[in-house]
Amino acid sequence: MREGSFRNLSGCAVSAMISKEGRRFSGADIIRSIRVMHDRSNGLGGGFAAYGIYPEYQDYYAFHVFYDNMAARRECEAFLERHFDIINLSKIPTRKIPQITDEPLIWRYFVAPLPTKLAESQLDEREFVARCVFRINVQLDGCYVFSSGKNMGVFKAVGFPEDVGVFYRLDEYEGYAFTAHGRYPTNTPGWWGGAHPFALLDYSVVHNGEISSYDANRRSMEMHGYRCTLQTDTEVITYMIDYLNRKKGLTMEEICSVIAAPFWDTIERMEPAERQRAEYLRNAFSSCLITGPFSIIVGFEGGMLALNDRLKLRSMVVGEKDDMVYIASEEAAIRAIQPELERLYAPKGGEGVLIQVKEGAGQCR
Amino acid sequence: MMLDAATLDWQALNEAVRDGGREIEIIHCTGERFIGAGASDKKITIHGVPGNALGAYLDGGEIIARENVQDAVGDTMNDGRIVVHGSAGDALGYAMRGGRIFVRGDAGYRTGIHMKQYQEKRPVIVVGGRVGSFLGEYLAGGLIVVLGLGCTDVPAGNFIGTGMHGGEIWLRSLKPPQHLPPQVHLEEADEEMLAAIRPQLEEFSACFDLPMSQLTEGRFYRLTPNAQNPYKRLYVQN
């Protein structure tokens, strides 16, 4: 049975780390961090998003794909060849470990849209790529593109997150930012595609919580051409971030005021200019308001955003040391990899923490 | 007895604490949950950051955390004392029914929600710094004091005392808290009123070696349920 046949309820753990200098470091530490919160997951899903890991292919979209079987792979590769120039393809390297079983075929492609196809489509490049991802995921049976950004990649599986990290040899990658997730779905069929992070282009989301606005958000996103296939709230959050940032051009700060909009009585007490802005965002994008408990970490090219729901029904702490920023559901998960912090704080509910890598830094563009 | 949390998982650690005699010191704590849960006669000193639900259902004795603690410390605690030298996470002292919690630094959202008291049982939380929103939400009894040391504004977030129908919340603050629900009665405390919480402040002062003068200077506000506007009228006119 797959995700999509019924709703998941999740508990979960999140962790993330980023170098503001764009300095690349190994994925070993993020595994150590998420391991501390082992008991927040139940072994039915773990995953990572890693940014800056493919500098040698930074101009190409990196597709990570799950296949049920070889026939699905052939079908998908035929589609990719019709639409993209495939620069490189390979199996994603994994370690066989007893904790991770029943893996699908896991392949990676570095691709660029075929110029003729792209011109014919009259779409901008990113929209073309996003539509291709949806076509594969919705129309091709047994194929699921779970990562599709440039110079970044998602690695996820059914299992405990620390085992998933070992399975994907995450310690052998170097990036300037990593996010991690341990999943606690209480009634999931447990399919690899349903693990976090969820990603579209370079946007990725890890999420601890259970949003109650899922259907309102889903209906809204489907009106804008997104197809929610998995019934998990994190999928729809990912599409909302993509929609608001890439398509509507909202800044990440503005996105916080949309998805975790201040209460009306808080807005009433704001200064006029701030109030006008908050009212506009709440009204214009009311169907993107997320209610219910959540703490999310959004990864994107060159940065990261952490956000709690307005009532702060999930825990999240942020630590800083030198050029590094750490975010986790529990302080211990940060202390495990950086005992000496210069600053540690818990962001307020609805107050986003935006971390951006220094402009022009190393490998992030 | 000294325990090294780095060598034990949380279950083994908690078993060792249960079997380990009256005085226990734990080093290298990294998120191990439920430490001291239900204990009644121990003194547990913790180095590092313990996991959630530290001292849940504590029924006596003492837990001293030398650094920060996470969420749900002292959940449904019944007796004893928890002393935190750093800061605490969310839901500190949730549904406490007895005992005392002293935090030198800050505490997170939902501090002391659902606390209650009965006869001689009266739970106490004193926080040295500031707290997040929903302080004392649905408070039914007990005492919460927020000292706001180092704060220039009101040392608590929004929705203070929402739904409170018993107990007392004290804020040391130069400005009165704003936007309180009508069910909460606010008054500035004079010297005479302040005497009511002096024993708790003295205990806090002793825990962290802070002079009483620092804790009592400035203004205090006391929040109690508004007897003129009780909740029953919210639902039924009778």
Give the key terms.
heterodimer; A: 365 residues; alpha+beta; Glutamine Phosphoribosylpyrophosphate, subunit 1, domain 1; 7-stranded antiparallel β-sheet; 11 helices; 30% helix; globular; B: 238 residues; alpha/beta; Pectate Lyase C-like; 11-stranded mixed β-sheet
Please tally the helical runs of chain A, counting DSSP H or I stretches of 4 or more residues.
11
Mean pLDDT of chain B: 95
Q: Which two chains have the most extensive interface, and how many residues on each? A: A-B, 20 and 23 residues
**CATH fold category name of chain A:** Glutamine Phosphoribosylpyrophosphate, subunit 1, domain 1
How many separate helices of chain B?
5
CATH superfamily membership of the domain at 87-235 in chain B: Glutamate synthase, alpha subunit, C-terminal domain
The N- to C-terminal Cα distance of chain A equals: 39 Å
CATH T-level fold name of the domain at 87-235 in chain B: Pectate Lyase C-like
Q: What Rg of chain B is obtained from the alpha carbons, in whole angstroms?
A: 18 Å
Kindly provide the name of the CATH class of the domain at 87-235 in chain B.
Mainly Beta
Indicate the CATH class of chain A.
Alpha Beta
Along the chain, the helix and strand elements of chain A come as EEHEEHEEHHEEHEEEEHHHHHEEEEHEE
H/E order of the elements of chain B? Answer: EHEEEEEEEEEHHHEH
Give an overview of the whole structure.
The complex is a heterodimer of chains A (365) and B (238). Chain A is 30% helix and 27% strand. With 365 residues, chain A is an alpha+beta fold. Chain A has a single domain, classed as 4-Layer Sandwich (Glutamine Phosphoribosylpyrophosphate, subunit 1, domain 1). Chain A has a seven-stranded antiparallel beta sheet. Chain A has a five-stranded antiparallel beta sheet with strand order 11-12-13-14-18, covered by helices on one side. With 238 residues, chain B is of the alpha/beta class. Chain B has a domain of 149 residues: 3 Solenoid (Pectate Lyase C-like), CATH 2.160.20.60. The longest helix of chain B is centred in the last third of the chain and has 11 residues. Helix content of chain B is 14%, strand content 27%. Chains A and B meet through helix 11 of A and loops of B.
